[in-house]
Design brief:
The chain is an all-alpha fold. About 75% of the residues lie in helices and about 0% in strands. It has one helix at about 10-60. The N and C termini lie far apart (about 90 Å).
């Protein structure tokens, strides 16, 4: 009357959830560290770009002061 069920057993579902939890516990810190490295690299690049523009400004004006007429 009741043939073989076509669904997953509770044990299979619990094992799947446990495996996913282990993978996420490894992946999330790695992802967070990579994001931190990317933010630091972006900040470093922005600082280098600012140094370049400051050097160009100094070469052009022979001073870091900016004349303001306002």
């Amino acid at each position: 009357m009741y043939g073989k069920s076509q669904g997953f057993t509770l044990t299979e579902l619990m094992i799947t959830v446990a495996v996913l939890a282990i993978l996420l516990s490894i992946a999330i810190p790695t992802y967070s560290n990579q994001q931190k490295k990317n933010r630091l690299e972006d900040a470093r690049a922005a600082l280098i770009e600012n140094v370049y523009f400051m050097e160009q400004f100094y070469i052009k004006k022979h001073s870091f002061k900016q004349n303001s007429t306002t």
